[in-house]
Amino acid sequence: MLQQVNSALDRVLGGVQVGSLWMARAGGVLILMTVALVTIEVFSRQLMGRSAVHATELTGYVMAISTSWAFAYTLVRKAHIRIDALYLNFPKRIRGALDLLALLAMALFCILVVGAAFEVAKASFTGGARANTPLGTPVWIPQFLWVVGLAWFSLAVGLLALRVLLALLAGDIERVQELAGSPTLDEQISDENHEATS
Length: 198
Prior knowledge:
It contains six helices and no strands. It has 198 residues and is mainly alpha-helical. The protein is elongated and about 65 Å long.
């Protein structure tokens, strides 16, 4: 029974990885579009003496949205910054427990942040709030897109924490390390070599 649950969770996490990759790519495309807007604005100021676009406002929205959309991908690829000077010296079982503790703390953080962000977006929507700028953007639109990224990240954290917990209960420490453990220097080099050759 536990093996079937783990297998199902692994499939779901595979889907989360794919979805996270595409959200990160979408965030990257948004940043590239922002670069184009800023370039147009610079040239329009030089040639016409005024801005043809309002890049400053849009870049702020894009940075918040694209960052939140990349959180889950960073998590599932284990690309976030870790301070692991002591961590790598612990036995694998203790490292697994610390990984679970870190995921649970992150899940609690996600609950607080997503709840607050949702309330902000909801208040902006119900109040009809608009940016005090020439564009007059309804601020609930970028806020909603920001919340989507945070909610996806929360889903990824919750599923990963559940899978790590089940792996710990089953005594599958290698799977815990594979899912959430901090990679050793040798593993990082191996991953870099694999990505460079593929």
